[in-house]
Design brief:
It is a single chain. It is built from 12 helices and 5 strands. It is an alpha/beta fold. The protein has 2 domains: 110 residues, no CATH class; 162 residues, Nucleotidyltransferase, domain 5 (2-Layer Sandwich), CATH 3.30.420. A 5-stranded mixed β-sheet has the order 3-2-1-4-5, sandwiched between helices. β4, α9 and β5 form a beta-alpha-beta unit. It is elongated and about 90 Å long. It starts with 8 loop residues before the first helix and ends in a 7-residue tail after the last helix. The mean pLDDT is 86.
């Protein structure tokens, strides 16, 4: 230790990039009653005092705490980043980092407030900063990737191009929902399937899309999950072209990802689809397809189908 070697507080401060008064106070604080300065003991004391202070004044001060709590909830629904960035306009001379807000939301002391329920994803546990581990799903046999998909599909200029994905039950349960979305009409088809094997997935696509005319089943875009490995059988039976997202780029099928979020409003994450009836699934499908959409000039998907004389039984 430099102090034991006779190094002055000014010199220690210079070496550490700290003011010499800070060094002097630190030594005096932790050498009372003739005690020897021990770094590990000093660190434990600092943590204990810091935790006690933060408990008395959460998020720096009661004013900030009330501001954060108010703007997380209705009618604001702001994120910690929004709160951190806008606070300077509402409360002069006061600021707080978004990470401080996140740490408080997920701390043990704030657990009783359940502030995490007001975050966009509403997770009770915070995800790791570097994200979740990406699974290696293997390679789809004879896959045609999305880079080769015609521009007319990318630009939503033509009807009959679909995206598909599954909405899963908890890991211990096999049943799930097979979701298909038409890219231009946003028409949603939801089918309960007993498991996520490729044969079951292919049969569900064939059964549901066979009810539509040929001009409404031109192509299907999907991810690289093993449930899509029977895509050649689907092509053979439906005559559709099959395209695959690039590995780990599920956002490239954004239409179905967006509809999945709406489906989760009815069947929240953790729902066991073994306990959900086909009638309940059909009800949700009808509700979503009867929602007015801005991209359809606030008409519904079913109304647009009737207008185009593509479907008459809805």
């Amino acid at each position: 230790m430099w102090r034991e070697l006779g190094v002055s507080c000014r010199e220690i401060g210079r070496r550490l990039g700290r003011d010499h008064k800070t060094i002097s106070k630190e030594i005096k604080r932790n050498t009372k009653y003739g005690k020897k300065y021990l770094p590990c003991t000093a660190q434990k004391r600092a943590e204990r005092v810091g935790n006690k202070q933060r408990y008395k004044a959460p998020l720096k001060s009661p004013e900030i705490f009330l501001y954060v709590r108010e703007h997380l909830r209705k009618p604001y629904h702001w994120t910690p980043e929004m709160i951190s960035g806008h606070m300077k306009y509402d409360i002069k001379g006061i600021s707080i980092d978004k990470e401080t807000i996140y740490r408080y939301i997920y701390s043990k002391k704030a657990k009783k407030y359940k502030l995490w329920t007001h975050l966009p994803c509403g997770r009770s546990k915070r995800m790791k900063k570097n994200g979740r581990r990406v699974q290696n799903r293997g390679k789809v046999p004879n896959a045609v990737y999305i880079g080769l998909r015609p521009k007319i599909i990318n630009d939503r200029k033509q009807f009959g191009h679909w995206e598909t994905d599954n909405v899963e039950s908890p890991r211990k349960s096999k049943p799930s929902l097979s979701v298909i979305v038409e890219r231009k009409l946003r028409l949603v088809i939801i089918t309960k399937i007993p498991n996520q094997t490729s044969n079951v997935k292919s049969k569900s696509l064939i059964k549901r899309l066979n009810n539509y005319p040929v001009q409404l089943r031109r192509s299907i875009t999907q991810d690289n999950g093993k449930e899509n490995y029977s895509h050649q059988n689907t092509t053979l039976k439906l005559g559709t072209k099959m395209y695959f997202c690039n590995p780990y780029h599920s956002w490239e099928k954004g239409a179905v990802e967006n509809r999945n979020k709406i489906i989760r409003r009815f069947f929240p994450k953790g729902t066991d689809f073994a306990k959900i009836s086909n009638n309940e699934v059909k009800y949700v499908e009808n509700v979503i397809n009867n929602m007015p959409l801005k991209c359809l000039k606030y008409k519904t998907a079913y109304e647009k189908l009737r207008e185009l004389n593509l479907l008459t039984n809805h």
